[in-house]
Amino acid sequence: MTDAHKLALAKGREEGRIVRRYLEGIEAAKPRRGRKRTPETINKRIQAIDERLLEVDPLTRLHLVQEKQLLERELATGDDGVDISVLEKDFIKVAKSYGERKGITYGAWRAVGVSVPVLQQAKIPRTRG
Q: What's this model's pTM, rounded to 2 decimal places?
């Protein structure tokens, strides 16, 4: 394998990672149905679980303990999530070459949630197909 081939493979892997991170970031940032959870509502639910743990059967206790752990993790990480703007900047740099190499159309990018302004910045043309 030539050095040029190795570099091309490395570039493709890096572009793939950047695209994956951005798409995962879009997915994570999507608004969820229902009320948004606040630290107060999470703490209230944890307190309710603690009270119920004393009086439930072992299987229900297992599920409540799991829910409590998930809530505590959510509380610890906060709702900060990912900085989508950083992911977006990296995505804009590689999206066109990645899409051309993989045959990804404008419509496919839109179908997975990439916004029109981001596609315009990445210079991905709107095509018919």
A: 0.63
